[in-house]
């Protein structure tokens, strides 16, 4: 987390935390309506990655690319299912 803040500064860290919070809120909203696998995956992905980001230095290279791939996939699925419910 400290290396990420040194590289990106406070605005970058704020944008990163807002993106994590948005993905977490998408998943938790889906979980409030019932057990939903993409919502559960979203919550576990964000909590697991952000927890490891604080403890370890996994915010670069392969781990960050894999997180962004899964986050993009899950956010697409969650937005698609949300628009289908309306």
Summarize the structure in short.
By secondary structure, the protein is mostly helical.
Structural features, described:
It is a single chain. The protein has 86 residues and is an all-alpha fold. Helix content is 87%, strand content 0%. It contains three helices and no strands. The chain is elongated, with a radius of gyration of 14 Å.
What's the quaternary structure here?
A: single chain
Q: What is the CA–CA distance across the termini? A: 38 Å
Category from helices, strands and their pairing: mainly alpha
Uncertain segments are none
- E-strand count: 0
Number of helices: 3
Please estimate the helix content. over 70%
Molecular shape: elongated
User: What's the helix-strand series?
Assistant: HHH
**Strand content of the residues, in percent?**
under 5%
Mean pLDDT across every amino acid position: 83
The radius of gyration is: 14 Å
Largest sheet: none
């Amino acid at each position: 987390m400290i290396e990420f803040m040194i590289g990106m500064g406070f605005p970058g860290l704020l944008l990163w935390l807002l993106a994590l919070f948005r993905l977490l809120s998408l998943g938790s909203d889906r979980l409030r309506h019932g057990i939903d696998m993409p919502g559960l995956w979203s919550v576990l992905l964000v909590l697991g990655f952000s927890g490891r980001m604080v403890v370890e230095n996994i915010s670069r290279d392969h781990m960050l690319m894999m997180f962004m791939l899964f986050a993009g996939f899950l956010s697409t699925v969650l937005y698609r299912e949300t628009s289908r419910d309306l």
